[in-house]
Amino acid sequence: MPKVIIVGAGLSGLMTAYKLRHSNFELEILEARDRIGGRIYTKKKNSVSLELGATWFGPQHTKLLNLVNELNVPYKIQENGREALYDFRPNGHLERFKLPNQQAPTFKFKHGTVSLLKALEENLNTSVQLNQVIKSVQLGNRIKVQTQSGKIIEGDFLILSIPPQLVFDSIQFEPELPLDLRELVKNTHTWMSDSIKFSCAFDHDFWKNERYQGTLMSPQQIIQEMYDHSDGDTHQKGLVGFLNSKFSNLTQEERRAKVSEYLKTLFGSQASAFSYADVDWRQENYTIDQQAKSLVPHQNNGHAKLRAPLFEGRLFFSASETAAQTPGYMDGAVHRGAEVADQLLDFLS
């Protein structure tokens, strides 16, 4: 029975494993983090769910929606209200603007994006091995993957579902992969690597009224984008969004203090008590190397060379950035994960 090694238990890697679950392949899934999901991250804190990674999707994301419906993962429409706050301070004023009528809905998962990952994992016939950091890959008659702890895993096929930029910054290959591919990968933007995502939960959704639901845009304040993230089913009241990257030098606790101070300028003292978490994805381990260059968003995402099988069809890149359809998004991860699985299934036929 041929063996497939999948490196990375994010959406793409788990999608490949899901599609191969009834095949004649032996599967082994290795994940560097102590959790599944990769850049999908729903953190539990004080009995609330704080969304810190991929969150939203839409009706145009057909591959993702097909999977969500197949697995019966509940989702809901994102409510943005009829008005948004635009904070131009200190160079302007705090103003309200009417939002245009939404032409197409935006969706989010009722129980956090991680619920999709858990549904996939529950349907696999193999378990994910956590805390397995890959050090090197030897390409020979058998593919040998060595972890930092010295463990060696051998297989016939290798799927690297981690961000392309991370592959060559953290894994040694023997023999080395082609120079043109290495240059391409170094110049392929890593989705989320420029973001600081924050999430907070309150006892009351005091920000809401018939017109306003929590939508905020600000070019200069610590919060650059903010949206309502409440859930009527669980009675959770929350806000989620992105912080200004110039605050990346602060600790999470320092950012929390500044977020609290800023929210109080908008909503008063009732905004002072909340559960909070954020993730600076450039500083997050196993997302992007600290020395990786900053790139234009989505640069080289979907490039055809990133999808070409290597080493006589035994080595694949499968992160969302490599997808031909919606690269860099959850839909792209599902699309590419399924595509790689189909290529492997063709090998058996």
Question: Mind explaining what this structure looks like?
Answer:
It is a single chain. By secondary structure, the protein is α/β, with parallel strands linked by helices. The protein has two domains: 1-41 and 113-191 and 284-349, FAD/NAD(P)-binding domain; 44-111 and 196-280, Polyamine Oxidase, Chain A, domain 2 (Alpha-Beta Complex), CATH 3.90.660. The chain has helices at residues 11-19, 62-71, 114-122, 164-170, 179-186, 252-267, 304-307, 330-348; strands at 3-7, 26-30, 42-45, 48-51, 56-57, 75-77, 83-87, 94-98, 107-109, 128-129, 134-139, 143-147, 152-155, 157-160, 172-174, 196-202, 212-217, 223-228, 237-243, 275-280, 315-317. The radius of gyration is 21 Å and the shape is elongated.
Summarize the topology:
Blueprint lengths: L2 E5 L3 H9 L6 E5 L11 E4 L2 E4 L4 E2 L4 H10 L3 E3 L5 E5 L6 E5 L8 E3 L4 H9 L5 E2 L4 E6 L3 E5 L4 E4 L1 E4 L3 H7 L1 E3 L4 H8 L9 E7 L9 E6 L5 E6 L8 E7 L8 H16 L7 E6 L23 H4 L7 E3 L12 H19 L1
Parallel strand pairs: 1-2, 1-14, 2-10, 7-17, 11-15, 14-21
Antiparallel strand pairs: 3-4, 5-9, 6-9, 7-8, 11-12, 12-13, 16-19, 16-20, 17-18, 18-19
Helix pairs in contact: 1-3, 1-8, 2-8
Classify the fold: give the CATH topology of the largest domain: FAD/NAD(P)-binding domain
- How helical, in percent, are the residues? 10-25%
Please indicate the count of domains. Answer: 2
Described by strand count, sense and barrel closure, the largest sheet is: 7 strands, mixed
| CATH 2nd-level architecture of the largest domain | 3-Layer(bba) Sandwich
State the secondary-structure class: alpha/beta
Strand content: 25-35%
What average pLDDT do the residues reach? 95
End-to-end separation: 14 Å
Side by side, the strands of the main sheet go: 8-7-17-18-19-16-20
Spell the H/E element sequence: EHEEEEHEEEEHEEEEEHEHEEEEHEHEH
